[in-house]
Amino acid sequence: MEYDITFKENVDHLRLEISGTRTRGSEETDAIKSWSKVAEFCKAKNINHILAILRITGPMPPWASFQIGALAEEFGWSRKFRLAVVTLDKESMKANLFTETVAVNRGFDVKIFDNEQDAKIWLL
After folding, report:
1. What is the three-state SS of 35-92?
2. Which pLDDT score, from 0 to 100, does residue 2 have?
3. d(C-alpha 74, C-alpha 89), whole Å
4. What pLDDT is attached to residue 1?
5. Class of the CATH-defined domain 4-123
């Protein structure tokens, strides 16, 4: 199931919300589609600071988590981007932290949080 994305441009960053439910077997594809759209939007608007609020539920397989971090450049993610991700679904936290590790190991500036206040402090 493709996720819903809402964008809100602020003076110093982009705030976006991604919501939906993961569908077994398409977790990786759906996530990559969403992050590709975010990358396209940011490049078109010349925005590098991104605050993402994830309202996505359902399990994320480890392989999908790995692929999202490993393929970031291939689906348009820029190393100029600084991404703070707020994970609201506790079940998703471990998977998102794994994706963070994979992405950071590949030179991307991303950090996972459990609340928006800390994420915004780190981002800005």
Report:
1. HHHHHHHHHHHCCCEEEEEEEEECCCCHHHHHHHHHCCCCCCCCCCCEEEEEECCHHH
2. 81
3. 27
4. 66
5. alpha beta
